[in-house]
Each structure stands twice: as structure tokens, then as C-alpha cells.
Design a protein that fits this description.
It contains seven helices and 13 strands. The chain is of the alpha+beta class and 237 residues long. Strands 2-3-4-5-6-11-10-9-8-7 form a ten-stranded antiparallel β-sheet, covered by helices on one side. Strands 12-1-13 form a three-stranded antiparallel β-sheet, with helices on one face. The protein starts with 8 loop residues before the first strand and ends in a 7-residue tail after the last helix. 37% of the residues are buried.
């Protein structure tokens, strides 16, 4: 990998190697600005709590959580919870939080916030993930989504390099549409933009991820990244 300055913007794929990124506004902004959900913000810690109008759902964004939980979505009755770690791409987390109003029947802006109804196994096949029983595995074998319907945590997304905490967990009772939304935005090969310093150490020092510059290319950085991606050998089972 070429050398990048810490503040240099880069394109990264696969997304599950890109870390959270800095698109926090996409995660919490629409709930506050478009749907007028109540919120409280503690400026010194960055902690944001957002409640749905009927108080059935709460989104808790905690940048300094001691266990590395960046964002938690909790529903009271019925009770279920989705938790996302600091390494979970915010693009995928935003796909979950932005879907919450529709889950409660608020269809305003639905045309701008599409929610996939494609089953998980079809999403996996579309993005070249393998399917074996209840486990979906990425093409490079480093990331997987495991479905265990008989456990309290029914869906868990893990990555080989991030052993301290799963990228995401969804407890029993979580609407599968939210899991599909998260997985669709996690598994897509479309690159995401990051500051190089925000990439996980494993991504900066290993060769499993593709990192290309945003500036200094003769073409659109997304196109440049996609063309570079085509030239890379793929690790398969």
C-alpha cells in the first residue's frame, strides 16, 4: 500500500474493512431534521439520545462507550436491540436508523429512503458472499453474518480482525428488514470514503483491503477505485 498522509481522503473497499468513518450526520440527522424525533446531546462527550415520538424506540449514539458500542437501537415493546461497534461502517448503520420511521408507519420521505425487501441469501449472492446454513461469508473469508434463531442474539456480524466486539448484533425479535438494510450496505462492493487516519490499523497495514486516493486521479475516484478493484485477485473458498 502506498503511503498516505493522516488527513488524506481515500476510497476503501470492502466496507467492512473501512471502519466507522465520519458520516455521523447520516445516522442521526434525518431522525432529528426530517422526522422531528426528540433528542438530547451532551457536547463534552458527544453522547446523543434520540427518542421516537411514541417513545417506543430510542437511538443511543455513544462515541466514548467503554465497550466500544458506537450506536444502539432499542425497542421497548416488543423488546429488541441492535448494537453497532466503532468499527461498523456508518453507511450501514445509517441504513438502519433511517429505516426506523417507516418501521413505525411514518412513510414521509420513503421515496428517498429505500428499504430492501430482498432476502438475506439473495443479497449475499448478489454481492458474491457464500451461504452455508445460517452463515453468510464474505468473498475474502474475513467477515460473516451468522443467524442463530434459537439464541437471544439472533444475528451477529463478525470480522476476523475485530475480535474484541462484533461489528453488529441484533437480538431476537429485531425486524429482519433492519438486518437486511444493514447487510445490504455492508456487503456491497461499492467503496466508501474515509480519512486515512480513521482506517482501522489492520486495514492500513494489511493487504486485504483496497485503498485508493480521492485526489490526484485522472478520473472520478469511485470509477478509479472500481477499475483498480477489477485487477485484484479474489480469495475464495
Amino acid at each position: 500500500m502506498r503511503q498516505y498522509a493522516p488527513d488524506e481522503r481515500v476510497m476503501v473497499s470492502p466496507r467492512y474493512m473501512a471502519g466507522a468513518g465520519d458520516r455521523i450526520a447520516d445516522v442521526i440527522g434525518p431522525l432529528i431534521d426530517l422526522f422531528s424525533w426528540n433528542h438530547e446531546h451532551d457536547a463534552p462527550t458527544g453522547h446523543v439520545t434520540i427518542d421516537s415520538p411514541d417513545r417506543s424506540l430510542v437511538v443511543d449514539f455513544t462515541p466514548l462507550h467503554p465497550l466500544g458500542h458506537l450506536c444502539t437501537v432499542a425497542h421497548h415493546e416488543p423488546s429488541w436491540e441492535a448494537t453497532f461497534s466503532r468499527q461498523s461502517p456508518l453507511e450501514a448503520v445509517a441504513a438502519v436508523t433511517q429505516a426506523l420511521p417507516q418501521l413505525l408507519g411514518d412513510t414521509r420521505h420513503a421515496e428517498h429512503i429505500p428499504i430492501t425487501d430482498m432476502p438475506l441469501d439473495q443479497l449475499a449472492a448478489l454481492n458474491d458472499w457464500s451461504v452455508e446454513g445460517g452463515t453468510l461469508t464474505s468473498p475474502d473469508l474475513y467477515c460473516r453474518l451468522e443467524y442463530t434463531p434459537d439464541q437471544e442474539i439472533a444475528w451477529q456480524v463478525e470480522h476476523l480482525y475485530f475480535e474484541n466486539a462484533p461489528l453488529a448484533t441484533f437480538t431476537h425479535g429485531t425486524p429482519e428488514g433492519l438486518v437486511r438494510s444493514f447487510f445490504a450496505h455492508l456487503a456491497t462492493p461499492i467503496a466508501v470514503e474515509r480519512a486515512f487516519a480513521d482506517l482501522p490499523l489492520s486495514t492500513r497495514h494489511e493487504h486485504s483491503a483496497l485503498v485508493t486516493p480521492v485526489r490526484g486521479t485522472a478520473m472520478n475516484p469511485h470509477v478509479h477505485h472500481a477499475l483498480t478493484q477489477l485487477d485484484r485477485p479474489r480469495r475464495r473458498r
